[in-house]
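Please check this:
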Amino acid sequence: MTDPHALFEEWFAEAKQSEPNDPDAMAVASVGADGQPSVRMVLLKGHDGRGFVFYTNFESRKGGELLAHPQAACMFHWKSLRRSVRVEGPVAPVSDAEADAYFASRSRDSRLGAWASDQSRPLDARETFEARVEAMRQRFDGGDVPRPPHWSGFRVTPSRIEFWRDRPYRLHERRLFTRDGDGWREGLLYP
């Protein structure tokens, strides 16, 4: 039996070597109160046996949807390798310590932007946002830029992980891992 997390790490390492841009980019799908799905690209910032971690503004559309309906579907597509990985499962916020540590690792401008942005809400003009960033630059002039209370991360704990590999004549290979208690059940899917 293959450990899907170990297989992901193997494929991810290969993607880091072959993808020209953002091998850590993943699509994350959530669902709104009206049942309407929504998908967007985020960057994977952590992966281990507990799951897949990304960070966001909890007051954004995705943050609100994931807090209200804590299930997500994610997808990595590595075109250069002709591979993809799909992940489905429940989401939960990361610990404050994890969020603080990651936030502190970001560039100062990115940290200022987290304070200045009302992510996903209407913006009248780019200049408004730039002025807000400048106001945050002055507010935190010379000092630390702490993590805003509305900014944190989510961990997707997979209940399903599918590994897709391109094969000639569209005879693709699909390996599905399904959570089974503390372990995994492995199987194949028709392409």
